[in-house]
Amino acid sequence: MHRLTASLAAITLATGLIGTPAMADTDNLAWVASVSGRVVDDGGDPIPGVALRLTAIAGGAATTATNADGEFTFDALPPGRYALAETQPPGYADGPDTAGSAGGRPGDDEIKGITIGVRTQATGYVFTEDRGSISGAIYDDLDDDGRLDPWGTRDR
Description:
Blueprint: H1 2-14, E1 33-41, E2 51-56, E3 61-65, E4 71-77, E5 80-86, E6 93-98, E7 105-106, E8 110-116, E9 121-130
Parallel strand pairs: 1-9
Antiparallel strand pairs: 1-4, 2-3, 2-5, 5-8, 6-9, 7-8
């Protein structure tokens, strides 16, 4: 039965898919490895519906999206090295990305070099997005000359 599981894993990776729970046999739980994290704004609020892609360096990829709490999980993963990428959500500027418990090198909306072993529960991968800001001055231009007078909002 263990040979069958290993053969299914090779076939699955060769066809471009990463492990599925159906591939795990109940006698050998080698497929319980996972990668999880969150996508949040710079205030720590969750961003739902953000697309993520986990790519195995040996080949194959899986996609998911964040839930209402900004969380994502890729589970039933075979051991190997992975890259995790986020699709930049509209309305946000790119912020810092943080590698989680299985390491990795954060880059621009991507964390490369995540090493997953048998039964690794890789947690804490965070993509933070900047909400941006608006700044400037509001004034009443009483003489309609398009500039703020040095003494305030009233022209003299």
